[in-house]
Amino acid sequence: RPRSHTVTTTSSSFTANLSSSSSTLAYDREFLRTLPGLLMVTEIVLGLLVWTLIAGTEYFLYPAFGWVMFVAVFYWVLTVFFLIIYMTMTYTRIPQVPWTTVGLCFNGSAFILYLIAAIVDATSVTKELDSHNYNSWAASSFFAFVVTSCYAGNTYFSFISWRSRTSQ
């Protein structure tokens, strides 16, 4: 008796849904060519410089530098996180989040807290405090003000983006 060589396959709805939802993440290389993208990269590079200049000293002996260190590291990590979100266009995959409002709140809070930290950093730097760490603290103060101006610029661009979204 001859055997049938017919093979029947079935597909479950689970595998069909899995394959359609697990597409690759997009990569937006044009974001780094925009002014907000360039400001974000500058915030990351100079923010890293701020906290490494302080971390290389005995900052833990002075509470003011602990505050500056907290702000610098906290916003450095969050800025890297947001850069990854913008570069991979993850924001397009999560439309429930109001990204323009989140960006405005993030950049606005970074500007305010970095401004406070830069002022605290600048007023805490004295030769009498610890002359061994003076140059590192003075340099960190300068770069903290530069990073503050970068966050101010990104706050402006976030506000423009937020305003154009809310007026539609």
TrEMBL record:
<dbReference type="InterPro" id="IPR008253">
    <property type="entry name" value="Marvel"/>
</dbReference>
<dbReference type="GO" id="GO:0019911">
    <property type="term" value="F:structural constituent of myelin sheath"/>
</dbReference>
<feature type="transmembrane region" description="Helical">
    <location>
        <begin position="35"/>
        <end position="54"/>
    </location>
</feature>
<feature type="transmembrane region" description="Helical">
    <location>
        <begin position="60"/>
        <end position="85"/>
    </location>
</feature>
<dbReference type="InterPro" id="IPR050578">
    <property type="entry name" value="MARVEL-CKLF_proteins"/>
</dbReference>
<feature type="domain" description="MARVEL">
    <location>
        <begin position="31"/>
        <end position="163"/>
    </location>
</feature>
<feature type="transmembrane region" description="Helical">
    <location>
        <begin position="97"/>
        <end position="117"/>
    </location>
</feature>
<keyword id="KW-0472">Membrane</keyword>
<feature type="transmembrane region" description="Helical">
    <location>
        <begin position="137"/>
        <end position="159"/>
    </location>
</feature>
<keyword id="KW-1133">Transmembrane helix</keyword>
<protein>
    <submittedName>
        <fullName>CKLF8 protein</fullName>
    </submittedName>
</protein>
<dbReference type="GO" id="GO:0016020">
    <property type="term" value="C:membrane"/>
</dbReference>
<dbReference type="GO" id="GO:0042552">
    <property type="term" value="P:myelination"/>
</dbReference>
<dbReference type="InterPro" id="IPR013295">
    <property type="entry name" value="MAL"/>
</dbReference>
<dbReference type="Pfam" id="PF01284">
    <property type="entry name" value="MARVEL"/>
</dbReference>
<keyword id="KW-0812">Transmembrane</keyword>
